[in-house]
């Protein structure tokens, strides 16, 4: 855990006040990007692993103390525990936290190997392309124009929809009458 905090501190010191562009992040070494991704996945998965390891520890305690007897719910896991149930000891709390940290690290390591596999497949696919093959990358020539919103446009200060023609549809009495 201390090692993770040290890497986080090094990463914070290396950051600048401006937001890095996509081109700037690609200049970072691959191992540093992998480490940052590992850190994000490990810390991001910790709340979930803590939740599930707490429920798992409660299930273990319930089985150990009562043999999962439904009549004795003081050791039952959180959703079905009795009011005023037995609290976890300090040792059980520590064990739950260590299990959650280990599971978070395991999730981050699994993600790392999945990413390495994807990167390796992409590298093999790129190497399989014969030399001299022209790669065509299609990009849009023009930006798409935003679509007009549905429904009437809001009134401007002059009481029209911005086209200079007053709108009298809402108040028929205010509409000019043509002579017969």
List the helices and strands and how they pair.
Blueprint: H1 2-14, H2 22-26, H3 30-66, H4 90-128
Helix pairs in contact: 3-4
Protein model, in words:
- With 180 residues, the protein is mainly alpha-helical.
- The chain has one domain.
- It has helices at residues 2-14, 22-26, 30-66, 90-128.
- Helix 3 (30-66) runs antiparallel to helix 4 (90-128).
- The longest helix is centred in the middle third of the chain and has 39 residues, at 90-128.
- The chain is elongated, with a radius of gyration of 31 Å.
- It starts with a helix and ends in a 52-residue tail after the last helix.
- The model has no long low-confidence stretch (mean pLDDT 77).
Question: Unreliable segments (pLDDT under 50, ≥5 consecutive)?
Answer: none
Cα shape: elongated
Rg on CA atoms, Å: 31 Å
- Please count the helical segments: 4
Element pattern in H and E: HHHH
Number of domains: 1
Number of strands: 0
Helix coverage percent? 40-55%
Main sheet overview? none
Mean pLDDT: 77
Strand content of the residues, in percent? under 5%
Intertermini distance: 90 Å
Classify the secondary structure makeup into a structural class.
mainly alpha
């Amino acid at each position: 855990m201390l090692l993770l905090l040290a890497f986080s501190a090094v990463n914070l010191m290396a950051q600048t006040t401006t937001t890095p562009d996509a081109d700037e992040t690609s200049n970072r070494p691959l191992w540093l990007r992998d480490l940052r991704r590992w850190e994000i996945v490990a810390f991001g998965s910790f709340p979930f692993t803590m939740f599930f390891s707490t429920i798992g520890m409660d299930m273990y305690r319930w089985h150990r103390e009562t043999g999962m007897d439904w009549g004795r719910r003081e050791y039952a896991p959180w959703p079905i525990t009795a009011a005023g149930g037995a609290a976890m000891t300090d040792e059980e709390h520590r064990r739950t936290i260590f299990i959650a940290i280990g599971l978070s690290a395991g999730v981050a390591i699994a993600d790392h190997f999945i990413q390495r596999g994807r990167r390796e497949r992409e590298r093999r696919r790129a190497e399989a392309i014969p030399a001299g093959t022209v790669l065509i990358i299609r990009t849009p020539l023009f930006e798409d124009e935003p679509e007009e919103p549905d429904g009437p446009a809001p009134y401007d200060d002059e009481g029209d929809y911005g086209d200079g023609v007053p709108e009298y549809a809402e108040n028929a009495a205010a509409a000019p009458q043509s002579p017969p």
